[in-house]
Amino acid sequence: MQIIACYSNKGGVGKTATAVNLAYAFAASGRRTLLCDLDPQGASGFYFRVKPSKKLIDAQFFEDDQRFAKAIRGSDYDNLDILPANISFRDFDVFLSRMKNSQSRLKKALKAVKSDYDVVVLDCPPNISMLSENVFHAADAVVVPVIPTTLSQRTFDQLLEFFQASDLPENRIHAFFSMVQGIKSLHGETIAGMTEAHPGRFAQATIPFASEIERMGLTRAPVLATAPGSRAGKAYQALFEEIEGRVKA
Ligand SMILES: Nc1ncnc2c1ncn2[C@@H]1O[C@H](COP(=O)(O)OP(=O)(O)OP(=O)(O)O)[C@@H](O)[C@H]1O
Ligand SMILES: [Mg+2]
After folding, report:
1. Nearest to 7 by CA among 217, 212, 160
2. Per the database record, which ranges form the AAA domain (predicted)?
3. Which one of 7, 126, 220, 228 is most buried, counting C-beta atoms within 10 A?
4. Where do the structural domains in the chain lie, given as residue ranges?
5. Integer angstrom CA distances of residue 65 from 52, 57, 60, 234
6. What is the distance of C-alpha 60 from the center of its chain?
7. Ligand 2 mean position to 168 CA, how many Å?
């Protein structure tokens, strides 16, 4: 079972849009896929028309295999299940920090579904917290969308520094440029600069700023399902193929 996290310490960069499309692409390729919506806002569940869970999540949730497995829902697509967000996920950090081996709770919990899924995609909330440390320990690949602006550069450097300081393997970080606007020279310059500064770290596929992606809020389906031939659809497909190749390697 491969665990792929869509993560950034910055908000609104395209994590959820990526998680939704990557999960769809893995499922469409025949892999049994679970998308875990770890953000209490519940956006990735919303895109798959799965309601957030109202049941209270408490400290035991991630320790109780059966409760974890029972919370999983089916989706409209073959091979794709969803673990919907729960409003009390916002208290995760408090629960986690009280537990023993608090950094590896999520990894342990996901072992409960090891034989049911080939791929688990995690849609993460934007911060560096106990939950994200759990994500970093559990994930085989941390896929990081980066909007090519100066501020994103700083945030990305902070993430790399965090990995170094915490002795986490940096080679798990796979970044890509998100919401790219070809018309903006700053975007082009930032892409060139960051690609050079971080050899091999950024995927060649970039995701353009595209209205099809914004429309996912209306269609409530991945772009890869509704508009696979669009520029955005082709870009997500290319990103999927690169990530698939990287996690296999
Ligand atoms: N490539 C894109 N082009 C245009 N709009 C996009 C693109 N990617 C995402 N969006 C839109 O930008 C908004 C933020 O995207 P998304 O929710 O995927 O980001 P996020 O990083 O998950 O945000 P959050 O930190 O709040 O979880 C959404 O309204 C989404 O539809
Ligand atoms: Mg999100």
Report:
1. 160
2. 1-164
3. 7
4. 2-248
5. 19, 13, 9, 37
6. 24
7. 23
pLDDT tens-digit profile, the chain (249 residues): 999 999 999 999 999 999 999 999 999 999 999 999 998 888 999 999 998 776 656 656 767 777 778 889 999 999 999 999 876 676 777 777 777 777 888 898 898 899 999 999 999 999 888 889 999 999 999 999 999 998 888 999 999 999 999 999 999 999 999 999 988 898 999 999 999 999 999 999 999 999 999 999 999 999 999 999 999 999 999 999 999 999 986
Amino acid identity, position 160: L
Nearest atom in ligand 1 to the alpha carbon of residue 17 is 18
Q: What is the CATH number of domain 2-248?
A: 3.40.50.300
